[in-house]
């Protein structure tokens, strides 16, 4: 029973990491829309246009909603949640690790937080107890 409690706790942590990331991406997309509504499109001409900003908003909304779906998969102990979660954590590491060297203290601490969350998430997602728990339904179906 203690082992199952440990696995449930790990799945909740994984779901929480995914959920926080999903909310962040959705909120970021909304902030982009609010910023454009208040100040207009700004930045270099090559990337600051209506279609570019629209695509950016759609990508962040899609990614955010996807991470919220993954969070639901973790909370429901679904094995499929692991692959998109891993991909999202690898992308987070690609962005966060270089940002650890940022001059701005807030950016630096956010980068450290994202990096730690991604590493912890990857580790927890692939622990043997979580893997066995996620495969438990398949093992039952394969038995005659």
Structural description of this entry:
- The protein has 144 residues and is mainly α.
- The protein has one domain (2-142).
- It contains 5 helices and no strands.
- The chain has helices at residues 2-39, 50-75, 82-99, 105-125, 128-142.
- The relative contact order is 0.14.
How do the SSEs run, as a string of H and E?
HHHHH
Q: What is the rounded Rg?
A: 18 Å
Q: How far is the N terminus from the C terminus?
A: 26 Å
Number of helices: 5
Helical amount: over 70%
Low-confidence stretches: none
Mean pLDDT: 89
Total tally of structural domains: 1
Outline the biggest β-sheet: none
Structural class by secondary-structure content: mainly alpha
Would you report the number of β strands? 0
- Overall, the morphology is elongated
Strand content: under 5%
Quick overview of this protein structure:
This protein has 144 residues and is mainly α.
Present the secondary structure layout.
Layout: H1 2-39, H2 50-75, H3 82-99, H4 105-125, H5 128-142
Helix pairs in contact: 1-2, 1-4, 2-3, 3-4
Features:
144 residues; mainly alpha; elongated; 5 helices; single chain
